[in-house]
Amino acid sequence: MRLSGRKTSFARPWTQRQRMVLLTLLGVNVAAFGAQLLLESFQAGFVHDYLGLSETGVQNAYAWQFVTAAFMNGGPWHLVWNVLALYLLGRVVESILGPRHFLLLYL
To answer: Is the distance from CB of 9 to CB of 1 less than 8 angstroms?
Structure first.
């Protein structure tokens, strides 16, 4: 208890409120990996050429690649480690920066 008479909360900052941006980014990462696998099964090289950050895309001014590249993964383990790192770091960073700035930082 503080001197002011109020109880001090010992809850961790990331449990005090839901992290909607973090949870949304985690879901988008998993969904993007599923879409990536599906697209690659129909046309090999499509993801690399049009969605991942590629030299051809930069030369042809595919501006969306700067956003979509953040959601591309090299395989299942790449996805697992990215999602784990995003979860562990994201909950702290989002609580410090706030949802809007956290999203801008991620993108």
So the answer is: no
CA distance 61 to 83: 29
Range of the domain at 102: 18-106
Q: Which residue has the tokens 């001014």?
A: 61
Residues 89 and 18: their CA atoms lie apart, in Å, by 15
**Contact present, 26 and 83 (Cβ < 8 Å):** yes
Residues 73-107 have pLDDT tens digits of 889 999 999 999 999 999 999 989 999 999 999 88
Which of 94, 72, 48, 7 lies closest to 104, judged by CA?
94
Calpha distance 103→107 (Å, rounded): 6
Query: What's the structural domain count of the chain?
Result: 1
Q: 49 and 60 in contact (C-beta within 8 Å)?
A: no
pLDDT band at 7 (very low <50, low <70, confident <90, very high): low
61 within some domain: yes
